[in-house]
Amino acid sequence: MEHGFFYLACVAAISRIGYEVISFRGKVTPLALYCFCYLYFCFGPYLANLLGFSIYSGIQKAYLDEAAFVFFLAIITLTLFPANTLSRIESPLALVVKSPKLVKQICLLAMALPVCALFALAFARIGFSGMDKVQRIQAVGIVHYVLLTLWPLLLFILLTVTPRKALAGKEPWMVGGTVLLYFAYCFYMGERDFALLALPLFFWLYKDHPISTMKLALLATGGVTAFTLMSLGRGNAFEGGGLSAFLNQGSNLMVTSNILAWLEQGQQVMWGQSYFSGLVNMLTLGAIKLTLPLSIWFSRAYSPAANDGAYGFSIEGEALINFGLAGVPFLFAFIALFLAVCYRGYLAGRPLGVLLTYFNLFYFIYAIRGESLILFKSFIYCLILFFGLLMLSQRGRLYFRVA
């Protein structure tokens, strides 16, 4: 059946989302959201092509069906792997946060002051000029990327040590104002991915009772619509109007179709080099870089005239370039299990489970259009910041309890 992998992937993803909601008594889980986002980012341009809309010119149309099979393989692994059953195996020890107030105060200061300073610097250098995103970032400098890396991690730590019901006095306004200030800065600089922070914020708001599926659907629709509006005018893929722009947000089809073509033309697999390099990069905090980031490698291989990392990458593309098709189910089985284990800890109120669930809702979805290096680096920075703040607030000690 023509386009069969697309239809089967849709059925599988929708079935798993429904199963997750029923199994967790109305709660929409990170795994359910990941299935939805992966389906959207990967099959959106495929559906646009199916409907006759323009798609990005770099997509290898001769490999659309092969790419659809790769996406289907990823989704079927996410949906059939028994992640929830395996996630019931828990550690007997649970971390305890003894001084949440001090951690909260440090986080708020570290989140608010740098944004104010950088926003002022950016406005002084850019003002109301018509610079594009690249020019704006060049005007601000590397500190822009430092802020975009660390600010979400501080937010996740703040949300972990500050349940919504624990907010008092002026604290709700302080937290809300800090978040809105960061959103305003990202919007001013032309960044779009800050919209994904709405997911961990929404989970934080509804942590102690089921999240309304309708509210979450409205949130997702509003977020994707805003994401689309910020993308208009960026290429021929948006010439078909609003629906075309809505469907053409994912770059996975462009990256994966080209990798499939290169592999068929003799490109050698990497046999895990990018994963090992990312792990070493993580453990050395970026001091040792064994290989180029795949986003840079891809942009140079695709077009020497392109800016490094101009096209991003794709999480399943990394599995392909490392191990071929066999790497895809292994990668997505791990993703499903990690999301489920962290969410189990989130529901049990374990600080690490709560923290990593907020982390997953942002970075794992963000990395769908990226590579494992993004996850490795952000993960180690998150843990260093979290445990560093804990030890600072608890005079160098960590506390555990028997679960």
Automatic annotation (TrEMBL):
The keyword Membrane applies. The keyword Glycosyltransferase does not apply. The chain crosses the membrane at residues 31-51, 63-83, 103-128, 140-159, 179-204, 216-233, 275-299, 319-340, 352-368, 374-392. Keywords: Membrane, Transmembrane, Transmembrane helix. It comes from the Bacteria. This is Oligosaccharide repeat unit polymerase.
